[in-house]
Amino acid sequence: MAAARDMPAPLSRVPDLGEAPPGSAHERELAALWESEPGWRGWLGTVDHKRIGLRYIVTAFAFLLLGGVEALVMRIQLARPNATVLTPAQYDSLFTMHGVTMIFLYALPVLSGFANYLWPLMLGSRDMAFPRLNAFSYWVFLFAGLFLYASFPLGAVPDGGWFNYVPLTSLDYSAGANIDIYALGMILLGISTTGGAANFVVTLLRMRAHGMSIDRLPIIVWGTLTASVANLVAVPSVSLAFLLLWLDRNAGTHFFDVANGGRPLLWQHLFWMFAHPWVYVVVLPAMGIVSDALPTFCRRPLVAYEAVAVSTVATMLIGFEVWVHHMFATGIAPLALAFFGAASMLISIPSAVAVFAWIATIWTGRPVFRTPFLYFAGFVLMFVIGGVSGVMTAAVPLDWQLTDTYFVVAHLHYVLLGINVFPVLGGVTYWFPKFTGRMMSERFGRLTFWTVLVGFNLGFFPMHVSGLLGMPRRIYTYPSGMGWDTSNLLTTIGSFVFGIGIVMFVVNALVSARRGARAGGNPWGGAGLEWSVASPTPVYNFAVLPLVASRHPLWETREDPVRTSMRVGYRLADGREALAVTPLAAAPSAILKMPEDSCVPFVLALLATAVFAAMLARSPTLVCAAVAGCAIGTAVWLWPRRTLGQRARLPARDATQAPAAAGPHPDEPRSPSAPSGAPAACVEPLPVGSCGKRAGGWWGVVTLIVTEAGLFGYLLFCYFYLQSQTTAPWPPEGMPKIGLAAGNTVVLLSSSVFVWLAERAVEAGRRRQAVAALAVALLLGVAFALVQLHEWHDRPYGPTAHLYGSLYFTITGFHLAHVAAGLVILALLAGWTAAGFFGPERRVALTVGGLYWHFVDVVWLFIFTALYVSPYWLRSPG
């Protein structure tokens, strides 16, 4: 493979626009190209989105069963008053891990599994945009879950609730390693979530079939896209909260320490800035499953597609504005209460749009009551119940009465569990033929559905009654005579029935995967592109990449003037190849060389986990060694290849070359430029690989910058929020000296100029000038870092002296870490440029590396303004 990597590709070639009959040599060639290596190397190194998607689903279901067992043990404790099955400490640990498992290790990962498997099939592509990042994200998710569950054998199970509120979780009240395990495990899990989100966003922008424009996207794509953008923006908030808490507990900082100026309420702001959008992160993709699969059983397209797509985006946008919905009882100002209460009610409007669309689709269609349809109908019921209880708690006076009661627990389970589980079970049943080539048992599936439906509502609806009667959440027992006995007993019985239903579903899936009836290609009569290929899905997805003409390719009629072509399309088989398209219209823009299988993502995920394990062990030596390993692994991952940058042509096949049977209606007349009435094929030369803003790597770095900008934005929010809460002098040691910092700012900004000059030099083919410019930029970056370290040494205080010291050293330390990473990138870019990896037609790595360095420089302007300038116009009285 190493030798092949360095062999130059042909300067030109002509990939066919043609067909690939089942069993053709073309299909056999594709299977050989895309199949993973047998044995353990192939198992660990696969980057096949289908295998990764199924791993997400199976792993998430394993965590679902673990979380379910924890819940049932708690319900045994609460079934009767004054029970002693669990001690308070044991109950707190199970309560915490149950919430962590169900919310973070099941609810989103299982939806990520669906999206990983289905997105390329629905979009008409052969893979995700970043296959190795896809594999890395899964392994990090798995290792993060194992990291959290290692707390059981270590005897340090997190016990502060999944909210992890301070000061309960501060060192004064939780001195063990349990909170540290939770904090570090959640940061590690955030890396997986962010990587997966970036992959989804770039896949949507780049990896679609020709003609799959944004007005033809499946709703599950809209739902997962909005959830992914939300993750890019919101996950940095909770990751920062956990990191600040870890610093308070292990480094002596004072972010949440009231005695030294910290504020526990800061935790709630950071946590709910993440956690409220997270509700929609796990709801919107589930709604997308229903929106895309329900029409199949109603025998008609989804009613009001455009309105549902817009409402999906609107729901997430409003969701970011209502985090204070969870803080109504914390002393928020009345004006803020009015605003956030209104916003909490407003969000029900776009949510209701989807409900009415589903009901209208069922009402105007011809429903077929198969098992998936039953789950989707049950979901609509759960959605309405959860939505109504949510609107109730948006009313501030009522929320004050219901906060921290079992009414909120009931609402949470309907929203996060009911709205998730029913679409997931229906979705697995619906796409099970695509996963395995077999059908799940219909008879046993119906019995399972009714067991799940009855158990869920019997288990969780009585919680509303318990809450209205005043039962507080998080209690491990209760006295008799409070009026809670009957509702708690019903909840326990229903929980066991629900658990039995989940086990029945798992058994049905396992048995059907081996013994189920053969499904055929499209057993449900679905309309999407995923049903146009064989079941189970071939390893290469599409033998020819389709030309899409509508939202429902398999439901097009003979009368449609323009129809999708699926049997005649782009034959890309010069290695692992995929088609890149423009973001909006989905016009072809490049031929992409997709990566081979690799164990590097697995090893890098192990090393990332080792970093957090070393932090838990408080071993700086091990931390540095693991970080160095991560840096080396990342460099190996990103090492450029010499086979990109040539140009090829995707011509339209003329009428004399077109096959006899092309498209779904071969008897229709065929035009020279488009088979069977499909959209006109591309006839323009396309680059092999892509440069500049057309490159997937460019979009990938943009998503990274969005996340990093969010991280620094939340850090500066902490700075100004804590500054606004203090009456002490700010800064405590007097006004900052701007001169040295201003000069250092000029040095850093100058480095960006030289990076820009290096890009222009490479574009013009002047390699030596580019290397020289990068070397100067590198020296300027080192100078900035040295001056910053000198300023640290010159400060009369450290990060543990007071709150301002904690903020100053943390903010500048974060930035200095990014400068260090940027310097490593600049050094690699200089070496690669000198080695001749880059040229006028091939400079993506230099472009995206420069983009990241420019971002690091721009961020410093905001930090400089906050730390050095703002104290002069935001003086606190001393």
Automatic annotation (TrEMBL):
Pathway: Energy metabolism; oxidative phosphorylation. It comes from Burkholderia territorii. Residues 653-664 have a biased composition (Low complexity). One of its GO terms (molecular function) is heme binding. Coiled coil: none annotated. This is cytochrome-c oxidase. It is an enzyme of class 7 (translocase). One of its GO terms (cellular component) is membrane. Residues 696-872 form the Heme-copper oxidase subunit III family profile domain. Residues 1-24, 653-679 are annotated as: Disordered. Its main location: membrane. InterPro entries: Cyt_c_oxase-like_su1_dom, Cyt_c_oxase-like_su1_sf, Cyt_C_Oxase_1, Cyt_c_oxidase-like_su3, Cyt_c_oxidase_su1_bac, Cyt_c_oxidase_su3-like_sf, Cyt_c_oxidase_su3_a-hlx. It is found in: Membrane. One of its GO terms (biological process) is oxidative phosphorylation. It is a multi-pass membrane protein. It catalyses: 4 Fe(II)-[cytochrome c] + O2 + 8 H(+)(in) = 4 Fe(III)-[cytochrome c] + 2 H2O + 4 H(+)(out). It comes from the Bacteria. It holds the Pfam family COX1. Gene3D superfamilies: Cytochrome c oxidase, subunit III, four-helix bundle, Cytochrome c oxidase-like, subunit I domain. Residues 34-549 form the Cytochrome oxidase subunit I profile domain. Keywords: Copper, Electron transport, Iron, Membrane, Respiratory chain, Transmembrane, Transmembrane helix, Transport. The chain crosses the membrane at residues 56-78, 98-121, 133-152, 181-205, 217-246, 266-290, 302-324, 336-361, 373-392, 412-432, 444-469, 489-511, 599-616, 622-639, 698-722, 738-758, 770-787, 807-832, 844-869. Its EC number is 7.1.1.9.
